């Protein structure tokens, strides 16, 4: 029985010993969607609501997709790291490696009609929403073919057709925007929700509480997600927050604390939150996660935390390793297949980088495009008033 | 912003200019960049050219040369006297309300949010009765959190709603400066054109009657540098309604500055639907000797001074610039080329105000046409005091305008 499955796989170098275990039916890589139930390692902690069940319904297809997407995101961030050091990416570059489980877990629970808005650590969220690698790299390198035509940069990725609203530099400001998105969804009777992501640093912004008050008052389908990676740039949570239980900070708004390094737990929490928000209004999710890089590429990341801590988390809680273990223990894929997959992804990312490097830089007339919609015949000048001159159409 | 597109499913009220030509199938002047759609109307320019628009706010007639102007190129009287129909008289806040109500009827995406705009009816009654008519979801009473509800309006606008955000007093919008500057002004640009933010941010500002320093602020000077927004200031019931409607229909974020002391101005405005061009200045009184540029409440101080000046033999040309960002340099330029002298009268502070920018713009563009330096009369760089006499001295008074004109015209 096992042999018949083997023949349809590309990998033909399996040891014959495999056939000695007829009961361990190997699921075909990437096409099996029969349900598997997996228990999350860490229980949920809740505030003013019931915790969702720890048993997560998933499938081997989904777990494999998690692995693939997270590996792609991880590779993208590493590639961005090298590009930054090669001075092809300038300015601020905030990397998301370590937090990938959040992006993929959330996507697995929602549709493209649900909106996501986040702040500047947005590269992986953009990819999760369906953004292309080459668009991301082009934007990082300031090319015309980037997702914001080179005018936004690392902190301003947007994808309107996938309801990804960015990409914001001033942390905390995206939360009222997110509640506005939720308001529009309620106004238009969309039956969709908005996930407004922010970090433990931004959790102390007043506008968060203002927006939460309004959302609770008007029953808006807004889900506020605190990506608690325990450091607001260089300040640890215990130094910035009197109450670091971010999920409880909503007071009258229910909250849930989730292990953010476990993609399945994230998926379960987001599913739960979506159902809750559509019925009862806002809910806060606190995702306990960790970033390996510093706050941004300008921050070594080791002045306020020890290298041991970083490598410790990497060994014990790394999201990709966790999924890899799942895939291996459930016999969904072999070590070699996963390694091949990673090689493929690495090549994919390298190709995207190469393609992005070839893309054109925006020309000078782009300075004035998209200032206004259907502009007003105003003349605009560059600084010297001679070289760059345009009439906004 | 020459093409104002009718939005909303099958706009029920077809626009007709108040000389009663059926305008439901208007032909645009030849402007190649505009796409042809079934229902469109264009704000006509005084000479029918594409780029620039004269002192006109009238809809073009079908296949006939564009109507030159309708807005007040008559003397100080209301701008509606060419109407063949009687029109109706109302106060400025009622005109704003009418404009808002008509737009909300027309397009279900328009909603209002602000403090006490719903059940209370608005602190200056601009939104009176709207909550009863349109319900709580479209006329939203917010808690006191300018930063959050301005941000929410902008977020809603990103998806296609058209919120009209009211600051109870413009000064309170300082709390929302981050949202207005970074999100409202910049999102269209930084997203590479993916999102438009068709919000209108409006509220009363300016120096009132002894309201104290924090309630007498002029925010146009703080907002003017924000890239990506448009600013307009209304001064009469006619242009209040017209600008309100145009601002709501505009795809760009528009900040509409009203003035606390002008809400009870009475005027007869046309019965028919009309809008005012957002980027256009209004010719209040044509003249020969000197160009006086002003906006909002100072228009009335200038017109009062103009009476004295006319008695003394001067012939001032008074232009209400209306569009604070961008400036209507076409109208202003034509005037400067005619009179060669400019006086700016504004209520902003001297430092960094609208007048300062306008002075720079005129000097840069029309330097050759000036016979005298541009003079700018602004409010003093002080917080507005409470005492009545002191408050009077902070703003420009008609007597000072007369003196300035006499000085410039020597």
- The CATH topology assignment of the largest domain in chain A is Rossmann fold
* Widest β-sheet, arrangement of strands of chain A: 2-9-10-6-5-4
Shape of chain B: globular
Structure summary, number of beta strands of chain A: 12
Radius of gyration of chain B: 20 Å
What is the global morphology of chain A?
globular
Widest sheet: strand ordering of chain B: 5-4-6-7-9-8-14
- What oligomeric state do these chains adopt? heterodimer
The CATH superfamily title of the largest domain in chain A: Thiamin diphosphate (ThDP)-binding fold, Pyr/PP domains
Task: Please provide a written account of the structure.
The complex is a heterodimer of chains A (393) and B (410). Chain A is α/β, with parallel strands linked by helices. Chain A folds into 2 domains: 35-362, Thiamin diphosphate (ThDP)-binding fold, Pyr/PP domains (Rossmann fold); 364-392, no CATH class. Chain A has 12 helices and 12 strands. Chain A has helices spanning 2-7, 60-85, 100-109, 123-128, 133-140, 174-187, 206-218, 237-240, 263-280, 307-317, 319-329, 335-358, and strands at residues 35-39, 45-47, 55-59, 115-117, 194-199, 222-228, 231-232, 235-236, 255-259, 283-288, 379-381, 389-391. In chain A, the strands form 4 sheets. Chain A has a 6-stranded mixed beta sheet with strand order 2-9-10-6-5-4, with helices on both faces. Chain A has a two-stranded antiparallel ribbon with strand order 1-3. In chain A, helix 2 (60-85) packs antiparallel against helix 11 (319-329). Chain B is α/β, with parallel strands linked by helices and 410 residues long. In chain B, 29% of the residues lie in helices and 18% in strands. Chain B has helices at residues 92-106, 130-134, 146-159, 177-185, 187-190, 220-223, 237-249, 298-311, 329-339, 354-366, 388-394, 398-408; strands at 3-5, 40-42, 88-91, 110-114, 139-141, 162-166, 200-205, 230-233, 254-259, 266-269, 282-285, 290-294, 316-320, 323-325, 342-349, 375-379. A 7-stranded mixed beta sheet of chain B has the order 5-4-6-7-9-8-14, with helices on both faces. Chain B has a 5-stranded mixed beta sheet with strand order 11-13-12-15-16, sandwiched between helices. In chain B, helix 8 (298-311) links the parallel strand 12 and strand 13 (316-320). The interface between A and B is large, with 54 and 50 residues. Chain B: Its main location: plastid. Chain B: GO terms for molecular function: metal ion binding; pyruvate dehydrogenase (acetyl-transferring) activity. Chain B: Keywords: Chloroplast, Metal-binding, Oxidoreductase, Plastid, Potassium, Pyruvate, Thiamine pyrophosphate, Transit peptide. Chain B: It is found in: Plastid, Chloroplast.
């Amino acid at each position: 029985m096992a042999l018949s499955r083997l023949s349809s796989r590309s990998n033909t170098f399996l040891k014959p010993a495999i056939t000695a275990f007829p009961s361990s039916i190997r699921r075909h890589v990437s096409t099996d969607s029969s349900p598997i139930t997996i228990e999350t390692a860490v229980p949920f902690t809740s505030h003013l609501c019931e915790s969702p069940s720890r048993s997560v319904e998933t499938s081997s297809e989904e777990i494999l997709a998690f692995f693939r997407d997270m590996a792609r995101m991880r590779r993208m961030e590493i590639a961005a790291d090298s590009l930054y050091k090669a001075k092809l990416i300038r300015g601020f570059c905030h990397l998301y490696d370590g937090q990938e489980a959040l992006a993929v877990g959330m996507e697995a629970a929602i549709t493209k009609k649900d909106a996501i808005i986040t702040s500047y650590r947005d590269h992986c969220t953009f990819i999760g929403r369906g953004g292309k690698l080459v668009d991301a790299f082009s934007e990082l390198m300031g090319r015309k073919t980037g997702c914001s035509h080179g005018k936004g940069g690392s902190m301003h990725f947007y994808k309107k057709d996938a309801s990804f609203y960015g990409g914001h530099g001033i942390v905390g400001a995206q939360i009222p925007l997110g509640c506005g998105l939720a308001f529009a969804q309620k106004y238009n009777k969309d039956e969709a929700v908005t996930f407004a992501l922010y970090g433990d640093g931004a959790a102390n912004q007043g506008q968060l509480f203002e927006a939460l008050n309004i959302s609770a008052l008007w029953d808006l389908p807004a889900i506020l997600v605190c990506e608690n990676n325990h450091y607001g740039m260089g300040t640890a949570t215990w130094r910035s927050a009197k109450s670091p239980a971010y999920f409880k900070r909503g007071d009258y708004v229910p909250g849930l604390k989730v292990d953010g390094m476990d993609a399945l737990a994230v998926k379960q929490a987001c599913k739960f939150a979506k159902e809750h928000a559509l019925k009862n209004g806002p809910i806060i999710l606190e995702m306990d996660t960790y970033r390996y890089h510093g706050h941004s590429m300008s921050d070594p990341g080791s002045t306020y935390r020890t290298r041991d801590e970083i490598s410790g988390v990497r060994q014990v809680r790394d999201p990709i390793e966790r999924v890899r273990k799942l895939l291996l223990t459930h016999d969904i894929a072999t070590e070699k297949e996963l390694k091949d997959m990673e090689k493929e992804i690495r090549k994919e990312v390298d190709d995207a980088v190469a393609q992005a490097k070839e893309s054109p830089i925006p020309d000078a007339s782009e300075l004035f495009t998209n200032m206004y919609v259907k502009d007003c015949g105003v003349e605009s000048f560059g600084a010297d008033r001679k070289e760059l001159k345009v009439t906004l159409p | 912003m020459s093409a104002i597109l009718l939005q909303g499913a099958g706009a029920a009220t077809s626009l007709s200019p108040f000389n009663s030509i059926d305008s439901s199938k208007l032909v645009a002047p030849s402007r190649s960049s505009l796409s042809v759609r079934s229902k469109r109307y264009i704000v006509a320019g005084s000479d029918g050219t594409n780029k620039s628009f004269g002192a006109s706010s009238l809809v073009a007639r079908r296949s006939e040369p564009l109507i030159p102007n309708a807005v007040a190129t008559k003397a100080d009287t209301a701008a509606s006297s060419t109407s063949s129909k009687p029109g109706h008289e109302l106060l400025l806040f009622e005109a704003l309300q009418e404009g808002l109500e008509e737009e909300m009827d027309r397009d279900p995406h328009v909603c209002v949010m602000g403090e006490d705009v719903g059940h209370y009816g608005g602190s200056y009654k601009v939104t009176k009765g709207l909550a009863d008519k349109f319900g709580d979801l479209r006329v939203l009473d917010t808690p006191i959190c300018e930063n959050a509800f301005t941000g929410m309006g902008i977020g809603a606008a990103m998806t296609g709603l058209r919120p009209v955000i009211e600051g109870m007093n413009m000064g309170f919008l300082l709390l929302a400066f981050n949202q207005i500057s970074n999100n409202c002004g910049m999102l269209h640009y930084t997203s590479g054109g993916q999102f438009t933010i068709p919000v209108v941010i409006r509220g009363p500002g300016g120096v009132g009657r002894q309201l104290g320093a924090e309630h007498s602020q002029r925010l146009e000077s703080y907002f003017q540098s924000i890239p990506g927004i448009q600013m307009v200031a209304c001064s009469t019931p006619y242009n209040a309604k017209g600008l309100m409607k145009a601002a709501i229909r505009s795809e760009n974020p528009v900040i509409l500055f009203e003035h606390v002391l002008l809400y009870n101005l009475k005027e007869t405005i046309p019965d028919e639907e009309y809008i005012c061009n957002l980027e256009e200045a209004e010719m209040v009184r044509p003249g020969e000797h000197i160009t006086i540029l002003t906006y909002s409440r100072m228009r009335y101080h200038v017109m009062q001074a103009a009476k004295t000046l006319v008695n003394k033999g001067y012939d001032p040309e008074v232009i209400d610039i209306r569009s604070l960002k961008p400036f209507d340099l076409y109208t202003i330029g034509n005037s400067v080329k005619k009179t060669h002298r400019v006086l700016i009268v504004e209520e902003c502070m001297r430092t960094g105000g609208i007048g300062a920018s306008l002075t720079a713009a005129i000097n840069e563009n029309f330097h050759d046409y000036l016979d005298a330096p541009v003079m700018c009369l602004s409010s003093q760089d002080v917080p507005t005091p409470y005492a009545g006499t002191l408050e009077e001295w902070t703003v420009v008074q008609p007597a000072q305008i007369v003196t300035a004109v006499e000085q410039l015209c020597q």
